[in-house]
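User: Show me sequence and structure for the first protein, then do the same for the second.

Assistant: Starting with the first protein.
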Amino acid sequence: MPKRPYFKPFILRKNSSAQRKSMQIAVIEGISATIIANILGGPILTAYLLFLHANSQQVGLVLAIPPLANMIQIAAAFFMQKMENRKLWILVTSIIHRSLWTMTGLIPFFVPDHLQVAVFIGMFLVSFISTSISGVIWSSLISDLVPAQVRGRYFGIRNTIHWAFASVTLLVGGQILERAASEQTAFIILFSIAGISTVWNAFELARYPNPPFEKSQAATGAERLLKPLKDRSFMLATVFIAGFILLQNTAVPLFSFVMLDVLEISYTQLTVVTVVQMIVMMISYYYWGTLNSRIPTITLLLWSLPIIALSCLIWIGMEIIPVLIILVLVHILLGVGQGGYNLLAFNFMIGETPKADRPMYIAMFSAFTGLTGFIGPMIGGALYEWSDGGAEWIQRYGISFFTGAAMLIVAVGIGPFILGRTKRRR
């Protein structure tokens, strides 16, 4: 049986081509980035915010910042037309992002108690504006480095590797939170790990190649901006996905808040169910990537959305089934669904858009989904604040259940018409 070419990027050889080495670097660099994102993000981010005495609305605001910051990508796409060195800008903005996020660990030592959450929000916002700028440039660069014929499988395997590290990182982080002498000690350890990983990540980013950037042929900035807006099939998919994310982010980003603050499960239980999600997501990346080599991206994207909806719907099961069993089932479904969405939305952005105008297409997609992704957690945080003191079931599973029902209607009732039309036009 002939060797499969899509595994070659992961085999280190002295005679490896420059392209293969570039793909290897992208895998290794992503490991350090994954460690930082999971030692400081996800449920640990929620735990740190509660440590700083944030309320549900403030937690919702912080969770809404990353998608909101993506709107800056439109400005970044304009700026890229004057850019000659993509690698330098990726390096600078990535270092700013990870350094600032790591420095939020110093807040309890230098900031008065009543200002700690506000200072965190400010630093977190600047950090994620930086990574949003980096993201649109990196997406343009990586699409030049990975051949189209292996793209789906490569990113499936790359994401599988990264989520394996994410699972271990989160499990270790949860144990540190659970077993450390105090929460403050635990967060000192976690932020120290993030600091070391930030230095490692900067080293790996410096190893990236810097291929020539093919710029848009549009004569003016207005023409560049209008290109994706005039692409009807692209905009149909973008607006639909943005609407789905508005519903999704009303509930899903606040799962950790509900588990910690409403259900009052332990850090260990929280990290275990989240690691279950990551392991499932890790495995699903490989299979979604394999399917993507045979089935169109838009079709698979449509398949992934009802699975995410079901992960919200089944919260109601805790009425008759033990809470931990339901939480595990929730995170299994979420892992499968989000694994598909994350991979396929990225492949949609870099695989079904014109190369020279790709930064603006990516920026437009990120702006639409970022705006609705920002509004979602804000609505969710307000709903939990409003329902505080009311019927217990509303906070325990009601908000998630009704959000999931709306998501399922959109995914099954509207999705085939919108994304199906997009698929036929592509």
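Switching to the second protein now.
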Amino acid sequence: MALEFLGSSNTSQGGGCPSFYRDTETGDIVVQGDALTDPDKIAQLLEVKPGEGFVVVPAVLFEYHAAKVSGA
């Protein structure tokens, strides 16, 4: 699997995350960012499967990179 960097929000103190990547073989999107750790919010998630993780993505990241993520 090769990942293509699509962009980041540049909102982090330490670098370029959260960030979006596209899997060049499947077109799937990979998100790098801070894990959701708030137990109250995690408890509200539906149908959580073993091994799933949750990443917090600022809305501005979608706004900045919507065309890249959609492949447009």
